[in-house]
Amino acid sequence: MKYLVLLCDGMADTPSQYLGGLTPMEKACKPNMDALAKVAEVGLCRTVASGLKPGSDVANLSVMGYDPAVCYTGRSPLEAASIGIKLKDTDVTLRCNIVTLSDEENYEDKTMVDYCAGDISTPEAAEIIKTVEQELGNEIYKFYSGVSYRHCLVVDGGTTELGDMTPPHDISGQVVGGYLSRHENAKPLIELMKKSYLILKDHPVNKKRIAEGKNPANSIWLWGEGVKPRLESFKSKFGVSGAVISAVDLLKGIGICAEMKIPEVEGATGYIDTNFSGKAASAIDEFKNGTDLVYIHVEAPDECGHRFEPENKVKAIELIDSLVLSPVESYLKGCGDDYRILICPDHPTPLTTKTHSSDPVPYLIFDSRKAQEGVDTFTEATAAKTENFIEHGPSIMYRLLEK
Fold first, then answer.
1. What's the maximum distance between 2 C-alpha atoms anywhere in the chain?
2. What are phi and psi of 235, to 5 degrees?
3. What pTM did the predictor assign?
4. Positive or negative torsion for Cα 311, 313, 314, 318
5. For residue 375, what is the DSSP state?
6. pLDDT tens-place values along the chain, 403 residues long
7. Which of 36, 198, 330, 366 allows an S-S link to 341, with CB 3.0 to 4.6 Å?
8. In which element (H, E) is residue 370 found?
């Protein structure tokens, strides 16, 4: 038996006036998903339990079958694992975005112009983080470069009691002063953020980006604090081998901590320009090499939701359907083995709010051995009408694996 999980990050949404009153899932032409939905179990799943924040960390752990209420130790430690950072038990890590802030004199008066600094390239970002480490790093604070705008700070002997360290993608277009933690323990970290602006505003990388009409990476933004993760091996937990295919450090880190394979896909960016076909080819290779379960994570719909790009979010879903699902499903049909497919988002990323929500997500589970009475098209509304509901998010992996 082979298992495919196609995780369309942030795909679920609410009706949008910019899409004629439809959701992106309703607007998108996705014949392969819809064909599976006609003969699959379709319903809703609560991937983010009450009391937890609807981050991709919590939601993807849940879809992978890990209960965040039991095993979650923070987002950034998972990303640290992907970067290759060896954490001590006394270390605290934080996600270190590089962002674009407006140019008011006081830091508190600046606006979050762009949470990803114009989707800055990884080589440019590496230069930025190198400078930050040279100027602000010491025996307590150590900065590590990641991918694009996503990086990591490790605090030796730090604390996770920091108050509310707000994710930057939650405050696009907002003045940042009201979102800076006032907790006493957070003061040194907020000071690092303020100092970083003074260091980066005239950085050579940023001067070049401004000349090219791009957003500068003129500040770090710290959030997502946590401690060394402890996840049970996926194979020990479920009895099947697994691989995670993703462009983002968070998902790779979860896979590393769960002792799953993490194949690299050239040109995988985490946005709509990602190498969709490369992800499909990598998944097929994993199946051919004997991996039982492949978890393909596609970030593009989520990024388009954060950036308020309605048409691009629709396009991202269509590209996933045609360039990822179609070839992988075609391989599975011809491989000679039975197979099961799970397709779902991790959480909604509504265009109206440009951030994540905790609402249940639509899912479909297809089994090659038996057709079921499904729905005509795979959308939020059709999933809700089936009245199939998985209340405990991690149960969805058990459902897929028939455990």
1. 65
2. -70, -40
3. 0.84
4. positive
5. -
6. 999 999 999 999 999 999 999 999 999 999 999 999 999 999 999 999 998 989 999 999 999 999 999 998 888 999 899 888 989 999 999 999 999 999 999 999 999 999 999 999 999 999 999 999 999 999 999 999 998 999 999 999 999 999 999 999 999 999 999 999 999 999 999 999 999 999 999 999 999 999 999 999 999 999 999 998 889 999 999 999 999 999 988 999 999 999 999 999 999 988 999 999 999 999 999 999 999 999 999 999 999 999 999 999 999 999 999 999 999 999 999 999 999 999 999 999 999 999 999 999 999 999 999 999 999 999 999 999 999 999 999 999 999 999 9
7. 366
8. none
**2-72+231-401, which class in CATH?**
alpha beta
Q: For the chain, give the number of residues.
A: 403
Helix (H, G, I), strand (E, B) or coil at 60: helix
- CA-based end-to-end distance of the chain: 13
**Per-domain boundaries in the chain:** 2-72+231-401, 82-226
Q: How far is CA 341 from CA 212, 227, 286, 315, 393, in A?
A: 44, 33, 15, 22, 17
